[in-house]
Structure of SGNH hydrolase-type esterase domain-containing protein:
Amino acid sequence: MDSMIKLFVSLLLFLFSSLLFGDISASKHVHHHQKLQGRPTKLFVFGDSYVDTGNIKMHDAPSWEVPYGITFPRKPSGRFSDGRVSTDYLAKLLGLKSPIPYQWKDYAGHERLEYGMNFGVGGTGVFETINSNMTMTYQINLFEQLIGDVYSPSDLSSSLALVSVAGNDYITYILGNGTNKPGFITYMKQVIDQTEVNLRRIHALGVKKIAIPLLQPLGCVPVVSKGSLVADCKDRINVAVIIHNNLLQSVVAKLNKETKDSTFMVIDYYNAFLTVFKNKGETPGSTKFETPLKECCGGICGAVDEKGVKNYTLCDDPTSAFFWDGLHPTQEGWKSVYAVLGKNLTASLMKA
């Protein structure tokens, strides 16, 4: 019975954990005298499974089970992918190693703490999703407790915060309330308003640059589209995502007007994902995926029955797939997204 409960919780976490929306080698540390003007020196990460690099306790989620992590680091690492996730690619753009997950901070040497910290946990929402600890407020509380002890005000003033969250809120709402349009729009406004509160709080704590991804086209993720091609995307769901993204961009514009600089920025996952889906080979650095909406790990990825029989199927080559499972990109998928974001994102991140 315990094993069934554990599997049920894991599957719930898998479902919720990021309806949000070849190889990277860790860059050498860039010393202070080598830094470009405006380059963040630390990365602090808040959010869900699109950014989680190991904060869920081992074996509490599919991300700690085989075949997750088969590409990198060739074993499960708590990442919801076959390899690296968005946090790793953003850190690469900054010339930093991927920040240490909060769960492992007490086991890390001082050098690893120099790159910042990752508070992201799969399943997190702006509001409560699976349990009361999986909220942005809780993650920001953990961050605040480290200020003055582990990180100084000067550390924060030269850092970047990545805030990747909201998809879990929408799927949780829909499961509990359906898709009643007036109620859903009201809830969306609540999510946006609380996101604004969270962004203001992170800024008030001393972080001067804050990046927040737009939701990706949720109507295209395999668990929703149940297809293989862009034509299989559920356009009605993507329209709702566009509304969310427009409201979020308005909040970012308002915050920037108040702070008199480009402190806040969005990362356009929505158009980057669509560009990769539609790529026919003309986008440098982006893989041409023949069936971009077909996941590599089908079924209940990472789950086995009581006899050890796999409840999933696995494709021959994860680099040929954009999606790893029903919700999350492969390492090759994330690599292609960041290839599309490319120089424009790098320039925005480096602005003084």
